[in-house]
Design goal:
Length: 332
């Protein structure tokens, strides 16, 4: 690990100013940043500690939205009665992620910004060809072991998977990330727009500018959020990333038989948290029936591209969506 300078920020303005320096990185829980430093992917000259900024630790609820500070711990949000009541899919996505020890350390902002677990990306000593780590070098995963790589949102430059759960739930329910830069300027970016597709520049993963940091996130309150669910399918029952996951929400018509509104986002299969708009459109106004749900869920794989070892994700993804919708709809 490269030697680095350590600086503790006293407020957001100082943190963003320090973070705008060349080769500086923000440090919160450290569960992603330190991990990347240990494997040699990240080699920052300076770490800016923001963990003592108290105004970034709050969970608040208003008539219109739920707001979570960027330094709220994963475990704090997962266990929050407010989050469980008004946004159950968010709480479930957090409780199913990582381990109890990591959830007690990791911040929500850091969790959103976590980077891929692609083994070719995370082992620079063994693999030089990684466009995400070394632009223009190629992608070793294209013809390598790609069992856990993406089938949606890929390009010829990168098929690395976005690994998180929480951002998938945020994507389903139109969450917004609130960002602040070193000039004190604030801007809000929808989560659906925050993450970039790899295209020919997979090293550019999101819309966060140098010297800018996430200070909070807001989720609009809605009937679909209140009646929501997060389903995660994985190779083992705990401490494992998703083979496929789905965050869903339902609002029914007064007859309680017809779908009025629906929200669907997919994880574990794409290069970014994946909003399934085509599935939502196909289900609005339809009766809540298993056959209808399964048929609509198949639309999520339109445009999916399987590589040698990950074709199972194209089969699994619609089944996970349908199962999640049946669960929240009371059909199972």
């Amino acid at each position: 690990m490269r030697s680095f300078n350590y600086q503790r920020a006293t407020d957001v303005s100082q943190a963003t100013t320090l973070a705008s320096q060349p080769e500086a990185r923000i440090l919160a829980g450290g569960t992603t940043q330190l991990d990347l430093m240990k494997c040699g992917v990240e080699r920052p000259a300076t770490l800016v500690d923001i963990t003592h900024l108290q105004d970034l630790h709050d969970i608040t609820l208003s008539d219109g939205e739920l707001t979570l500070g960027t330094l709220v711990k994963m475990s704090q949000a997962a266990d929050s009665k407010t989050v469980k009541t008004f946004a159950p899919a968010l709480a479930e996505s957090l409780s199913l992620a990582a381990s109890a020890q990591l959830r007690n350390m990791a911040s929500l902002g850091g969790n959103i910004l976590q980077r891929t677990r692609c083994s070719y990306f995370r082992d620079p000593q063994a693999w030089s060809a990684c466009n995400k780590r070394n632009p223009g070098s190629g992608c070793a995963a294209l013809n390598g072991l790609n069992h856990n790589h993406a089938v949606l949102g890929t390009s010829d430059s990168c098929i690395a998977l976005y690994p998180g759960d929480f951002a998938v739930a945020l994507t389903a329910f139109d969450a917004v990330l609130n960002l602040q830069n070193s000039a004190g300027e604030l801007r809000s970016v929808p989560v659906t727009d925050f993450f970039r597709l790899p295209s020919d520049r997979p090293d550019l993963e999101h819309q966060l500018a140098p010297g800018e940091m996430i200070v909070s996130l807001t989720v609009p309150r809605s009937a679909t959020l209140a009646r929501s669910h997060y389903l995660k399918v994985r190779d083992r029952s705990s401490y494992e990333f998703a083979a496929a996951s789905a965050a869903v929400g339902l609002e029914m018509e007064e007859d309680n038989l017809t779908i009025k509104e629906v929200r669907v986002a997919l994880g574990g299969v794409a290069t970014k948290p994946w909003r399934a708009y085509q599935v939502e459109q196909a289900l609005k106004g339809q009766r809540l029936e298993e056959k209808t749900l399964r048929k609509a869920a198949e639309k999520v794989t339109e445009g999916a591209i399987a590589r040698q070892h990950n074709g199972h994700k194209i089969i699994l993804a619609p089944r996970v969506i349908a199962r999640a919708l049946m669960t929240v709809g009371g059909l199972v």
